[in-house]
Amino acid sequence: MSDPEPEELHALYARDLEREDPHEHWLIKDLWARRAVGVIGGAAKSFKSYLALDLAFSVASATPALGRFPVEDPGLALVYLAEDSLPHVRSRIEALCRHRAIDIHDLELVVITEPTLQLDTRSDQDRLRSTIARLQPRILLLDPLVRLHSGDENDSRDVSRLLGFFRDLERTFALALALVHHVSKKAQSRPGQALRGSSDFHAFGDCNAYLQRKGDHVTLTVEHRASRSPAPLTLRLVSSPTGSDA
């Protein structure tokens, strides 16, 4: 008995591919595209987590990211902040709510509360898939990447498998995905080349954002695969009257 013919790969003529609507390109204008995967990178204490949460909060609240970049496709945001206690996460979200006059009860922001998540294991991958399938978020934020796997970040095979999983999430669920990641101490001509570990991290991103801190000021540099990048922007973290940063 002969083996059955293998199923063919899905393929289309170029003329039959779906066109991209230029009016539906951005999730957050000039910062992050719809269905884009990418990295938010920077050294320790460069406010990576604040920027990442600001992006997710902006999508969930339909308010401009960093107070200046409009959200063009608002909706539910799903976040996992591996290094922060849940009370501290709530405190940071409440600070953003106060700053933007948003009632937290109206906020479409969902926090994954698992104590640990290992996304190089099949069980946790399947659990995350099920959660995304139920909630249908516009954006998924994972912070920081180093706490979400047990592989070797310098091994291209380990990194390729992990990033392949993230790319599959984007394609299956039509969501944007932001990974917070550290940079090495080696000086590089381009910020993305300083991302810690395999060069696959830099190549992976459709939209990447890099933070470089000098004193109380931070320079934000954004790079896009398919769009013109905005000019670098200088940011400053300001404490609110209640003592929370925003």
Write structural notes for this entry.
With 246 residues, this protein is of the alpha/beta class. The strands form two sheets. An eight-stranded mixed beta sheet has the order 5-4-6-7-3-8-9-10. It has a two-stranded antiparallel sheet with strand order 1-2. The termini are far apart. Helix content is 27%, strand content 21%. It contains five helices and ten strands; from the N terminus they run βββαβαβαβαβαβββ. It is globular, with a radius of gyration of 19 Å.
From the alpha carbons, calculate the radius of gyration and give it in angstroms.
Answer: 19 Å
Main-sheet strand order equals: 5-4-6-7-3-8-9-10
- Helix fraction, binned, reads 25-40%
For the report, how would you describe the main beta sheet?
A: 8 strands, mixed
Distance between the termini: 68 Å
Question: Order of SSEs, N→C?
Answer: EEEHEHEHEHEHEEE
Percent of residues in β-strands: 15-25%
SSE class: alpha/beta
According to DSSP, the number of beta strands is 10
Query: What's the pLDDT, averaged over the residues?
Result: 91
User: Number of helical segments?
Assistant: 5
User: Which shape, going by the Cα principal axes?
Assistant: globular
Q: Unreliable runs, pLDDT <50, ≥5 residues?
A: 242-246
